[in-house]
Amino acid sequence: MEINRELKQYIEREILPRYDHHDAAHRRDHALTVIDQSMEIAEKLQSYGEAIDLNMAYAIAAYHDTGLCEGRDIHHLASGRIMRADHNLRRWFTLEQIETMAQAAEDHRASAKHEPRSIYGRIVAEADRVIVPETIIRRTIQYGLEHYPLASREQHYSRTVLHLKEKYGEGGYLKLYFPHSPNARRLAELRQIIADETALREAFERLFSQLT
Questions:
Q1: pLDDT band at 22 (very low <50, low <70, confident <90, very high)
Q2: How far is C-alpha 34 from the chain's CA centre?
């Protein structure tokens, strides 16, 4: 199943440019990565016999972080509101489908206290876990530099370590919904780095120097 051409054109023209105004870790390249990973997961699920609408999965991925314009703490909820309010989506989806998509955007956040309400929420949540160890560490540093510009190098290191352990470490709050996905292997690699203080410090120092 091909993505609807008009839907794709609309998202590329009207939705993806919104990411150009986000912080460095959540710009258009991030949205495109989540779209690509969502499509890969959705197509694989289809091959297993799951009734997945690829147009829905595509749109959810494209909108999932649009709500960052209202702040990180509520961005997932804002993304859901943006989907519900975009009447252009009614050209391609029913109101029931739009509600399912909005709920998936609301449920994608890694720190969510509840499981996604549909398989579409699980797809975008998994796709949003762009678990490439070096990319994760770089994005964590980028976020710190943008939001805490007066912090010292050592303070940035401490914040990076704390965030990585809380989210990605053993017992961290990040959840994977498809255990055989490439993310599972990459998460194991990242956890090895987090557990190795020397390796983590080396990665931080190298990436911090590149970014400053």
A1: confident
A2: 6
Distances (CA, A) of 208 to 10, 138, 187: 37, 8, 22
Q: Where are the domains of the chain?
A: 5-128, 133-211
Instruction: For tokens 């690699």, name the residue.
Output: 189
Distance CA 176, CA 47 (A): 20
Q: Mean pLDDT throughout 186-203? A: 95
DSSP H helical segments within 48-118, as ranges?
54-63, 75-85, 95-107
In whole angstroms, what is the distance from residue 203 CA to residue 134 CA? 8
Per-residue b/e over 102-131, b at no fewer than 16 CB within 10 Å? bbbbbbbbeeeeeebeebbbbbbbbbbbbb
Confidence of residue 32 (pLDDT cuts 50, 70, 90): very high
The third-level CATH classification (topology) of the domain covering 5-128 is Hypothetical protein af1432 (1.10.3210)
Task: Name the residue with tokens 């991030």.
Answer: 30
Q: What is the distance between the alpha carbons of residues 77 and 102, in angstroms, rounded to a whole number?
A: 9
* Whole-number pLDDT of residue 136: 93
Q: How far apart are CA 155 and CA 196, in angstroms?
A: 19
Nearest by Cα to 104 from 87, 86, 88, 117: 117
Alpha carbon 150 to its chain centroid, in Å, reads 27
